[in-house]
Structures are given as structure tokens and as C-alpha cells.
């Protein structure tokens, strides 16, 4: 999302709207990308992102192949670039890549001629997540510009936070980051957004509360001392939510750790929680990205 301008974002979201409606029909398929090949290349686990890219490709008529690192020749010692170039040689039109290292997806994009789509690279970016989040907010609240959005939790390790910060700032929303000092990224002052370690202050009058998972896999020693203390100070529950606007939207990219960063009571509040809407929007947002990259 870094460097993507507002008109491009709006174009993608507008395109995605068409697919939201189509995906609610009995027949969800179109033929716009028939004959094209999409490869999902995932070096990290995924439920939502991988499945939604697969559905997105299939609903546009593409042939879709899924490769997970555990089951590929990567476990035999092949390098990342050799794997990517092998898939490229099979005339893949698009390769969706998720990798634990920041910059890995960019590297593949520079060495191949397929369209490369970032499905999350380390703690760097997860652009289609930001797009589906924006689509969800725009449909629920009617706009992005001028909204107050709090992004809360493990910001330091979160690619979701980074992509959302870029997108929301570009679209004119006001972002506040809320995290304990150990999970606030170094250099946060340079992000051009507000930040606080006090969740109640951070949630004051916001339109959207975006929660993040505690990413134990990226902690490397810095992290949380106790889940109980963390939930007490930073877990989203009714009391903390009451500082936000009355109709504030509750979001979480998933997978959720209930009782760690979010209380079941608020996660499952169907009048406020947009968590499953986010999942639904993920398919449409990814269809829009594929169509705009590969379509005629
Ligand atoms: C996120 C990810 O993988 O970055 N999940 C997702 O794609 N919906 C967030 C996370 O893993 O916590």
C-alpha cells in the first residue's frame, strides 16, 4: 500500500463492490479471467488469505494451484528464487506469495514476469488485507475520509497495521495506534499518525476499533509478560469499547485469540462486530485486484 494513491485505491474498492453482489448469487462465476493460471505460494500458514485468493481466482474462471512450503521442494533445500522462477517457467500469470521475511515478495517480483501479489511479507505489508478492511469500513460507515480509526495491539509485529496505516492515511482517515511500549514499533513517530499506550485514551470517540492478534511467532523475546495482564490493559472488552463512539465498528483480521486481544462478548456482537464481513469482503477485494491486474 505504500505509495498507492487514493484514486487507485478507490478504483479497486469500486471494482470489488461489483463482486460483493455477484458472490451473493447462486452462480458466483464470471469468465473474465478464463484460461489464466494463478498460483498460491505460501511459506506461512493461512486460512482466510489463501482460501479467499483461491476462491477469487476460481470465481473469475482461473485455474488455481496451491503450494505450501512444507509440501514443496523448499524442504529439499531449493532457494526462494529458484522455486519462484520454476513456477514462472510454467507460465503462471499471477503468483500470490506469503513469506516470513519482509521484502521477499518484492524480490520475487523483480526476478519473474508473472504478476506477483503480496499476501503478507514478514512484519512489512499485507496490502489486500488493508483493501478488504477499507471495503468493509466503506460499506458499513459509508466513507473513509474523516473517520477516526484506532489500531490496537501488537503493532510492532503487524503487517496488517502497516498496510492499513498507509491506506487509511492516503484516504484521509485519522489513525491512532494503541500498544504497550514493548509492542509499539521503534520509529513510530515517523509514521505520521497518533500513538498512545493508554487504550481508553486511544479509543476515545473513534469510529473504528481495529484489533490485532498477538503475533507470538514474531516476538523474539520482546512481548507480553502475561496474557492476563495484557487482556486487562489491552484486550477489547465492553468497558474499553464504551470509550469509542456508540456505533463504532469492531474489526479483527483473524485469526483471533479470544480472551487475549479480544473478549468473546464483543467479538460475537453481531450489531457491532464486522469480523465476518471482513472475511466476506476479502474474496471480493482479491477478485478486484486480480481483475485489474490481469483483465483486458
Ligand atoms: C493476518 C496475517 O497473516 O498477517 N492474518 C490474515 O491474513 N487475516 C494477521 C495475523 O496473522 O494475525
What does this structure look like?
This protein has 296 residues and is an alpha/beta fold. 39% of the residues lie in helices and 15% in strands. The protein has a five-stranded parallel beta sheet. The chain has a four-stranded parallel beta sheet with strand order 2-1-3-4, with helices on both faces. Strand 5, helix 6 and strand 6 form a beta-alpha-beta unit. The mean pLDDT is 95. The site of N-carbamoyl-L-aspartate has 11 residues, from helix 2 and helix 6.
Give the key terms.
296 residues; alpha/beta; four-stranded parallel sheet; 11 helices; 15% strand; globular; binds N-carbamoyl-L-aspartate
Task: Give a brief outline of the structure.
39% of the residues lie in helices and 15% in strands. It has 11 helices and 9 strands. The strands form 2 sheets. It has a 5-stranded parallel β-sheet with strand order 7-6-5-8-9. A 4-stranded parallel β-sheet has the order 2-1-3-4, with helices on both faces.
